[in-house]
Design goal:
Elements lengths: L2 H15 L3 E2 L9 E9 L9 E5 L9 H16 L3 E2 L8 E9 L3 E6 L46 E17 L4 E12 L4 H12 L9 E7 L5 E5 L2
Parallel strand pairs: 1-6, 3-4, 3-5
Antiparallel strand pairs: 2-8, 2-9, 5-7, 6-7, 7-8, 9-10
Helix pairs in contact: 2-3
Amino acid sequence: MNDVARKPFSRLAQAAMAGLLVLGLSACAENFDSKVTRFSTQLPAPQGQTFAIVSDNPALNGGIEFGQYATLVARNLAKYGYTPASDPASASMIVHFNYGIDKGRQVVRSTGFADPYWGPWRGYRGRFGYGGWGGYGGFGRGAWGWGWNDPFFDNGIDVSTVYTSDITLRIDDKASQRRLFEGRAQAASTSDHLSYLVPNLVEAMFTGFPGNSGESLRITIAPEKKVTVKPDK
């Protein structure tokens, strides 16, 4: 076997030995797909209720970037009738808002013959023994696989970097210190630009807000801002 014939298999073997994630990236890069999980008690009726947005990271509080994203959260809460307070001391609700992104990880994408052992939004079912891919932040294994094509029927393999980003939102009643709402929105993408990711994650978080407690959803935001909501299985 010549070097050209061995090259696809060699790359696959190296990926497996290095513990690379095996995903098939979606061909439709325009859509923004996210996973949203929310828990809530009875949020107070918006009758004079005020809120202030803070970060659990002191380095973010007062920052220009954090302020820009916090403004998006405030606008969404205002749509539900809650009023921004001038500062946390005068607010009746404290909103803890945080965002982040991992360092990225290499994934393998084949562009050839589709392998029936792999499918969209499912992990691997056997064959090579790689298993599904778990979500960042503890949402469980196998929730984020896009699919895989068999390299033995392929003309080449692409290696890309996928980043996992998320936002968390917690709302507390300041007087009673009772937790009213908590949620997390996550996404996997080839972009690591928070200025693109965070606004879309915020929009996903507030789609159908506050949602059904304990429910996980897949929320897709199209470029023209048409939102599709599906149960996450």
